[in-house]
Design goal:
Helix content: 10-25%
Number of helices: 6
Distance between the termini: 92 Å
Strand content: 25-35%
Shape: flat
Length: 363
């Protein structure tokens, strides 16, 4: 699979310079690029490594002097990182799965597979499941009874999709994701120490030790169009109503979305984010790595939470937050600066106490 510089430029809406008939077989970092590679030198700092490789063509930043860099051809896009989205899509060789339904796959007789669906080795598709046209299902995938998946999806190796889950079109689910497992919902016969501690903010009262009883999850999961779900991410089904993920939301590896959670559209949930049950996350929200969100709260639209933030209460729309507990990011930075100065403050106070003490003895 290769493309000319002219073909790539036309596909990306980028400008092409020099010998646009050069064919590109793969992408490479500047120092590793060969004569048939497109070097990704999208910043001046990256271009410094071009002499270490053998690239004849490169993707450069707006305003770059490609001839001065010794290249025979160049692609220039106003926003190189955005152009990378289209460029990597062109060059992606895929997973190498075969077409059609593999002989070892188990597809229930009542399941409906749209035109062009492929199903990999040892995958299982349950009764009355519906798979949209062009969707590609990899090896060892399990899709439960009455699940629905839209057109043109990619379901990679080892994904588990439970019964009655509904997934939109053009979804991309990475290996090992589990969608539609039961929520972590348990209750004790009498009021527990946990319940009392939560109500009193610390006192367990006279509660005695008890065993927990399961609350079954009768809802399912609804996922919109153009959603991506990372490797080993988990989305639990709702207790009564469905857990929901909005259109175009992107979920990273090892993210946990608990039962009854509602996530809006165009939201990013980065690695190891954990969202507790019945919480609502707005649209265009970014939760950076290891952000934790408490249960039964609301995080408004366009909120940005920095890495490691712990959100324990409602966050209004548009706020940028950081810390544990979460506060405005600028407030957290000031708090951190003050904390770093505590040692100096203690030394100053000790010096003042010593001076005051000596003055008292002299008097």
């Amino acid at each position: 699979m290769s493309y000319t510089i002219a073909e790539i430029a036309a596909s990306l809406g980028a400008e092409a310079f020099g010998d646009t008939s050069l064919r590109i077989a793969r992408l490479a970092e500047p120092a590793d690029a060969g004569p048939d590679d497109l070097a990704l030198a999208t910043k001046p700092a990256y271009a410094e490594a071009l002499p270490q490789g053998k690239a004849r063509a490169a993707m450069l930043w707006d305003g770059a002097d490609w001839q001065a860099l010794g290249l025979k051809a160049a692609l220039i896009a106003p926003r190189p990182r955005f152009a990378m989205a289209g460029l990597t899509a062109m060059m992606d060789p895929g997973e190498g799965w075969g077409e059609g339904v593999h002989p070892s796959a188990v597809v229930d007789a009542t399941a409906e597979l749209g035109c062009g669906v492929s199903v990999g080795p040892l995958s299982v598709i349950g009764a009355r499941a519906r798979i949209g046209a062009g969707t590609r299902i990899g090896p060892n995938v399990t899709i439960g009874a009455e699940a629905q998946i839209g057109d043109s999806g990619v379901i990679r190796e080892g994904v588990k999709i439970a019964a009655r889950v509904r997934i939109g079109a053009r979804v991309f689910i990475q290996p090992g994701a589990a969608i539609g497992g039961d929520g972590f919902s348990f209750v004790t016969p009498e009021v527990s120490g946990v319940e009392q501690a939560r109500a009193s903010l610390g006192d367990q009262g006279e509660a005695t030790a008890q065993s927990y009883v399961r609350i079954h999850s009768l809802g399912s999961v609804r996922i919109g169009d153009d959603v991506e779900i990372g490797a080993n991410a988990t989305i639990d089904r709702g207790t009564i109503r469905d857990t929901e993920v909005g259109d175009r939301t992107k979920i990273d590896n090892l993210v946990m979305v608990a039962h009854n959670v509602i996530v809006g559209s165009d939201t990013l949930l980065c690695g190891q984010v954990g969202i507790a049950g019945s919480t609502r996350i707005g649209s265009n929200v970014v939760l950076a790595g290891q952000v934790g969100v408490s249960d039964n709260i609301t995080v408004g639209d366009r909120v940005i939470a920095g890495g490691g933030t712990k959100i324990l209460s409602k966050v209004p729309a548009g706020r940028v937050i950081l810390g544990y507990p979460a506060v405005k990011m600028d407030t957290h930075i000031e708090m951190y600066k003050h904390m770093r100065r505590l040692g100096r403050l203690f030394q100053d106070v000790a010096g003042l106490k010593k001076a005051v003490s000596k003055t008292a003895q002299t008097d």
